[in-house]
Design brief:
This protein has 110 residues and is an all-alpha fold. Helix content is 58%, strand content 0%. Helix 1 packs parallel to helix 3 and helix 2 crosses helix 3. It is globular, with a radius of gyration of 16 Å.
Length: 110
């Protein structure tokens, strides 16, 4: 707890960091993989991402987290690589077509 009415630092730098974390927990709790399997997969992904540069615990960390989760979902047959790629491209296009300060909606990709 902070003193003087200060707000604590957020646990996640970006909303999507919290969302991908929560999705991973939900997939674990629904039996798609054990936490040990996740830790092994994520650890290997962190190592692979960390070979090129130091991870900062923020965006780099969650980029690796998302990469590990996408690979896991593909290996489990829960998601297809092409579908994931199309979703990423759609969100990127929607982001670029959304005025600054407005919420991004996938429909803006069209």
């Amino acid at each position: 707890m902070t003193g003087g009415g200060e707000r604590p630092e957020p646990a996640f730098e970006e909303p999507w960091h919290a969302q991908v974390f929560a999705l991973t927990v939900a997939l674990n709790e629904s039996g798609h993989f054990t936490w040990s399997q996740w830790a092994d997969r994520f650890g290997a992904t962190l190592k692979a991402h960390g070979l090129a540069k130091e991870l900062d615990g923020g965006a780099d960390y969650f980029d690796a987290w998302l990469d590990a989760l996408e690979g896991f979902l593909q290996d489990l047959g829960v998601a297809e690589a092409l579908v994931l790629q199309n979703l990423k491209e759609g969100w990127a296009k929607a982001y670029l077509n959304t005025p600054h300060g407005q919420p991004v909606h996938l429909s803006a990709a069209q």
